Fold these 2 entries.
Entry 1:
Amino acid sequence: MESIDLVPQTDPASALDPAAVAALVRRVRGPVLLPGDDGYDAERSGFQLARRHRPAVIVGARSADDVAAAVAFAGDQGLPVAVQATGHGLSAVTDGGLLISTRRMSGVRVDAAAGTARVEAGAVWGRVVEAAAPHGLAPLNGSSPGVGVVSYTLGGGVGVLARTYGFAADRVRSVDLVTADARQLHVTAEGDPELFGALLGGGHGLGVVTAMEFALVPVARLYGGQLVFAGEQLDRVLEAYLTWTDAVPDELTSSVALIAYPDLPQLPEALRGRYLVQIRIAYTGSAEEGERLVAPLRAVGPRVSDDLREMPYAESGTIHRDPSDPHAYDGDNALLGGLDAAALRRVAALTGPAAPVMTVVQLNHLGGALARGGGAVGHRDARWALRLLSPLTGDDADAALATVRALHAEALAAVAPWRLGRSVNFLFGSHGQRPDAEDVARSVHDAEEHRRLTELKAAHDPENLFRFHPAAAADRAPATTAVPAVTH
């Protein structure tokens, strides 16, 4: 699928100082690319094809020194900075500025004796899972092996083991950070507790993270997989699931997804044109106890498929089966303090087979260890995360985006009585370009935490160099706007 490129097309490099660019090229090990250069389009593209950065200059960083050089150049030239690793969830897309691409910084090192992993800025979760598995260890990774570790973690990180072990951010030991004045810091809870805590849930607007060390957990296997029901059983499944989650132990993390699959030949025949309800299970206890726990769900009725099984943790990416091919999409979410089946049925009615666009609905069961911990992760008391994602298709990109956002807004209105805010990890589109960008920014944390992050942002980045982030437009993001994590 081609990128829709929902950004004006101008010549962002026209005002650059050629001598300064030449000096940057000499200083960094990675490539320096301008619009029109071979590799420029590939470097600015990520998993999210709906939008691409169109920077004045790209630095394909190979090291923390490259990142520092790029930040210093941007400061000297008055260019705002964006960062991209995998490009799953883009920061606010810009026409101009400097883009630091970190995908070449993909190192992963596991210290089995210490039970830790150190990863570079461009590493993806699949590599960490693979490196930890031979030692009987696991990271607190997300459902997709291809998502970048660093930005996922800076946004909190609700993963496969979330209710058992909490947010990925809760396990971080240290962060290597390039600041707005191009200094390289090693940030720890002991050395700078305020900055360290703000990074873990407050995110990339405070600098560019070049590496991170975090604790692993002793998990070598899981009982997990999917129970898939036909859409005709929707009401019974939702009632049973909401009741069931009231009593499950913290060792069980689950979600339910509602997907109306289009009738397309590239889809497996079992999915084409079907509306399915998928319950995803990850349980760290025994398979025997797992079978007992899921029995009430199986009792709902016949399943389209049922692949619950004991598996090595290295196969945890098969539980959700997230798409691995880049595509264009937009999404939104709500963190909820409660929920009832009637509201969830309303969401299903709006987003099901009769909806104007395909919408994947996912309801994550929260609580457990997620409710405990520190850092700047917002709304830890949420019991649910309701996530909406829709592909963007057709020739009229603006019309497609408007349709999707109107549908998502209507669906999320059904859960308004329980809404606490948003999770920055699940802001799948470029929210900085929304007319309600400031409201989105404020929804990620409560008012006091938002104020604290705003003050830290102003102190650590007074010129607002790192202004591109999911919840504030680049052209109206003053240094006094709090910056949630860039989910790149």
Entry 2:
Amino acid sequence: MSINCKYPEWLTEYTFDNCKLNRKEYGEFLTNYIKGEHDGFVLNLNGAWGTGKTEFLRRLYTHLTNEGHPTIYIDAWESDFSEIPLSVVASELINQLSIINHNIGSDLDKLTGFLGKALKGTVIAGTGLVTKYLVDDSATGREIMKTLFEASAKDFLTSIKKDHEEQVEAIKSIRKELGLLAEVLKQTHGKELPVIVLIDELDRCRPNYAIEMLEVIKHFFTTKNFVFVVATDTTQLQESIKSVYGSNFDSNTYLKRFFNREARLAESDLEHYLKLQEIDLTPYSDRVVIYPKITNNTKDNIHQYIIWVAKAYELSLRDVDQLIDKLKACLRGALYAEQSSNKVQVVNIFSLLVGIVEFDLKSTSFDERKNGKPCIDNRLYKHNILLDSHDENVFSELYELNMYNSVQHNIEYPDTWGDAQKHLVYGTHSKAHGKDYSHCNGIIKKVALEIDSNFSNFNHKTGNVKIWLWPDYQKVIKLAGNLD
């Protein structure tokens, strides 16, 4: 059976069953929670930028729609150009309810009339558009404002006072009509209550517009059997409010005026997410060697390194998506280099991933790292991210090991006569960086042995093999860095 809604394609594209972030359980929990609110409820769904709020809201839309709840989705960012948030919420509410229930038209008439009264004269420039949209008479608003400004000062104030009183009454009537409409939706059209309105991308809007949108929700639409879920990066929204009211303004307390409760978006399951990402390694085969390996499955290796890098640099989901896209571009660059030179490209996957992140973060290490200078004093990442159950196996050790092995070193070895001999090496042996990993257990020792093994295997094949060093990483990363 087909379901009438504004976004029917979402019903198959965005479901909790195909959620890459494994948020089905949380989505169902939140659904059951908001379904139990019937007395005018506004929930702040708080999630930092890049945590997947939009994806989550669209899946919530599908879930609620399938359960029979009239569900409205509003992208606040799309309407940011408007000067009148009330017109945006009102028009979307009317339009989407009309789509959900094609025969509900007459039941919306009174509500539409009261909304038109509330909107009358709100903004001079937008009045014609608003009244055209809601009451199909663009001339009305313009004539009202023309009459007001042609009046005497006394008459002008009287008209303003009258309009204010009308708007206050209109707000009361809107709330009453919304409550009655909800009952009609249930009794006549067989819908479940409450009506759910999902507001997305509010934190991306202009500060004034975001504040006005919250005011509109609070004063006009918080009524019986209506629930609003407003997705925000609350920290960012607080900063927007401070930009309007001043840096010392208590934006946290201010926001609590508008929200009954706050729900934090559950932490993403990065491992589950990466398992569903497509990184096709088929074209590379033996033409691009990706090391160091920690398992026999190259794709699993890449996923594990991405997880470590994402945790260490505290990357958002959007950051991870960009990292994967740029990684793919870099590997294609390696494949092109193999085709051009007919030399197998040997690429350190950890160094490549870290290089992409360092370039995006404008780390000085990215540009300063060169032969004989591995730049291991990076402070942009969390040093103590554990790689396995052994305390010594932390991210900073993995970083140091691989960065040393991304540059060349001149090392002195004594010959059989005791004289020092200089050798140019690729930084693969413990002597190259003054550390012996033979006493270690777990990941670090495995990576060190894997690096040594790779370089031992390829050093005698220099004519047919190109072992990437830092200038190679820099070149391809800078090219991929143009992708956003």
